[in-house]
Amino acid sequence: MSTLKTPFRYDFVGSFLRPEKLKAAKKAFEEGTITQEELDRVTDECVTEIVAKQKVAGYHAITDGEFRRKFWHLDFMWGFEGVTHEKDGGGVQFNGEMADLEATYLVGKVKAKVHPFVEYFKFLKQFEDEQTVAKYTIPAPAQMYQQMIVPQNIEQTRKFYATDDELIEDIGKAYQDVIKQFYSAGCRNLQLDDCTWGAIVGDAAKQRYQSLGVDIEEVKARLLKVNNLALEGRPEDMVITSHICRGNYHSTFFTSGPYDSVADYVFAQEHVDALLLEYDDARSGGFAPLAKVSPDKKVVLGLITTKKPELEDKDKVIARIHEAEKYIPLERLCLSPQCGFASCEIGNKITE
């Protein structure tokens, strides 16, 4: 088993564009013209090929490109007891485009069961070697909590949970169980993808919560609580990182705003080993909030955009790294794209 630990000095978030043959196979499966076994065979082939490409590119972390899921977050939630989904009614408005998601909501108490993603990880792990280690990405506990309290879900959620604290408790415990499942399968590098922090930065979020009569500081405290609860009892030799995102659907974004208003919570107090942060354009603000990052964390600067095909100027990227160095030592800094290349099956407006 590989003993390499993420993040690496040059790294990536996780998802890749779905190959055309995988898209065709999924479409054929949905139309009933191929079996699950045939779809799995094509998916296995595509994962094998994307891992090989990662190795050729010189990456030390390998992922399955998130090829086995439709959405970066929802598919994972479907793997818990008490959660169901349906194809209609799950759209979310991004900047200039409606994201076609699936309605995901509670039909009972949240409990862990044998999670299908663990088997997906086992397939990936076989490709580890002396130079590479398997990393698996899942949505953060806060993402699942937020999913169940959005306006279209809160009434249904209250049938099973009278308070948010009760919901947080069950989500935290369910995640603890699944993290142990990943560990038992040999996973030593797990990444929590989290759009909840990115959704509450900036003045627009503050005004939105004020209009609802909700204290935004209480919201931040709950996000931190559920994430840290899920990490209680984690194995000491398991690296767990968090990627903080502002939305990445078909090259569009969900929110904008600097990290300043959440830094005291997630940068200073979240119990992860590293933060993968979006910093590819002005929407992310400056580097000053990095001064709040606790000394036990590394920071992966997402200075390379996955939203458009134009490549960044190398000298400008280097200069920005040195800007960040004013707030956090260079030895704790890494470099990566700001997000994945295909958070959902549709992917971004770029080519393979």
From TrEMBL:
Residue ranges occupied by any Cobalamin-independent methionine synthase MetE C-terminal/archaeal domain in the UniProt entry: 13-343
CDD domains: CIMS_C_terminal_like
E.C. numbers: 2.1.1.14
One annotated GO molecular function: 5-methyltetrahydropteroyltriglutamate-homocysteine S-methyltransferase activity
Record keyword Secreted present: no
Superkingdom field: Bacteria
Keywords: Methyltransferase, Transferase
InterPro entries for this protein: Met_Synth_C/arc (IPR002629), UROD/MetE-like_sf (IPR038071)
One Pfam family in the UniProt entry: Meth_synt_2
Any one GO BP annotation for this protein: methylation
Keyword Transferase: yes
NCBIfam families, alphabetized: PRK06520.1
Name of the protein: 5-methyltetrahydropteroyltriglutamate--homocysteine S-methyltransferase
Species annotation: Agathobacter rectalis
Taxonomic lineage: Bacteria, Bacillati, Bacillota, Clostridia, Lachnospirales
